[in-house]
Amino acid sequence: MSQSAPTTAAEEFAEHGKSPVQKVQATLHKYPWVSPFVVLALLIIIFSVLGFVFDVGALENFFKPGTISLMLQQTVIIGTLAIAQTIVILTAGIDLSIGAIMVFAQMMMANLAVYTTASNVTFMAGQNPVLAVILGIVVATLAGALNGFLVVRFNLPPFIVTLGTLSIFTALTLIIFKARTIQGKEMPEFMLLMNKDFQIAGIGFTVGLLVMIALYIIFAYILRGTAWGTHVYAVGDDPVASELSGINVKRVLFSVYVVAGFVIGIAAWITIGRTGSASPNVAPEINLETITAVVIGGTSLFGGRGRLLGTLIGTLIIVVLDFGLSLAGLDQAYRVLAIGILVIVAVAVDQWIRKVKA
Amino acid sequence: MTATSTADPIVQAKDLNKSFGPVVGLNNCQFELFPGEVLAVVGDNGAGKSTLIKCLSGALIPDSGEMYINGEQVSFKSTHDARSKGVETVYQTLAVAPVLDISENLYLGREVRKKGILGKVFRSLDKKHMRETSTKSLGELGVLTVQNITQSVETLSGGQRQAVAVARAATFGSQVVILDEPTAALGVNESARVLKLIKELRDKGMSVILISHNMPQVFDVADRIHVQRLGRRAAVVTPETRTMNDVVAIMTGALTIPEEDQQLTPVR
Ligand SMILES: Nc1ncnc2c1ncn2[C@@H]1O[C@H](COP(=O)(O)OP(=O)(O)OP(=O)(O)O)[C@@H](O)[C@H]1O
Ligand SMILES: [Mg+2]
To answer: How close are the terminal C-alpha atoms of chain B, in Å?
Structure first.
């Protein structure tokens, strides 16, 4: 059976009839991670030129192994949570409770692992850190299930549901675990496993970074290689058509929030390692940062369109901007400004790409 | 009734009712489709044609009434249930996911996994197989000349999308194929191909329900014509015994046909 597409006159006409701009549009449409990749490459080039040619600030340190190590470690929390955010946004949803659930889960892990009688949570008496981590992940998964249940059962907009659970889990964290930060040195070794590091070519890698990369590979496969992944895209694209095609839309949506919760649970453990403590005030900006990473990464807020690879690049863009601008001696405000502009440009580009026609 | 044949209907509905709040979609609607026939369903806008076939295909759950496939009573909870009974449908809205490619759309909701451990444990999709069979069946049907089976459906024209939806139903339909205005967005040539396809499906022994506003097309392919009016079946006639004007008159209520003059039994 012949697989190669025959070139007919009409096809050739279609190809030649495209202006260069339309070709760019079609390429970005097919490979949504290309534009974030270009942005990332441009940023690195600009910072290098500024550092090495114009000697701006401390930018010449940009490629020092120490800087690269720090940047990589800086990606793990946003990067891991952004996986959860990507899957939810692919269904045309949004998860504002990611940060709150992560904080709740990490406070739970740390409290279960450390406290004996000084805490409200006494039943484990600090005996079993492995169980503490597992329970934390289970609780985060259940929190995701609560989001999914509310979205699916009552047909509530994900924005509203997760806005509600954001408050609920923030409050529960304070009520149950108080505002007490647990330091890493109080914790058993296992709790900080994600921060174990090793060097390759002078660059420091952590276990947490490897776990994040593994999660990206696994979920990229799941989204593109399994029926569930196809259904996630289909449901985000057109839920009515999906239902008519025999997909159980509610089940897919519910499972998406459960999976997101599970990833958030792992991120909680990573965060304890990365920050060397468990604090209710860790990463207050994390919700917006994950959404930013996803959007800059080329995933459409309207659902159905985007790649996990884009999200990883989006996360790197945030971190590279952060380091580049601060090495250049610029104020944090400029970084916030730059991110804001990037988000708006990314959404505008998405709108433009969505208009592609054959 | 003038029972001339003893064939049992392959699809039957009795006293179907379906309301959308105050709006009545179906009002004690009767329906019969016999094996191997093309049954056209015609009626004014809002007569309940789409509502009827949505009930028959599991997309809507009727408020009351009974449905039978091959004499066995069914109560479909989803389109999946109907598909598993061999009933495939092309909806008026096409029901394709534009971001997915042609092959993914053909197999949407019934993806094929790889054999062995990759499929069983890792749930890996057999994309190669799905693409090959999609290319093959689209080619066989001749309803669509596609350049690339991995082209996303949103890059196709309206007519091409319709062709993809028709191809999906024709590929997987094992007993009954339902088509809700399948030629609405098609040009003359593509419409002719779809009509030819409908005849081919019938020749293969399948039963076809065709909803259409195009009277010449209906009179060309239909064995019997079910006229829907105000949520119920006004009459069933044949193209041989009635003119297009008669059918339009039944649609608008200007003409009523006594039951003994209707064609409530199979003609094939
Ligand atoms: N989901 C719905 N919600 C509310 N009303 C509906 C819905 N679906 C159908 N209706 C109403 O039910 C009635 C029958 O609609 P239906 O779509 O079955 O008509 P139709 O015969 O297919 O018309 P057309 O030829 O325009 O496709 C109409 O009055 C329509 O407005
Ligand atoms: Mg209709």
So the answer is: 17
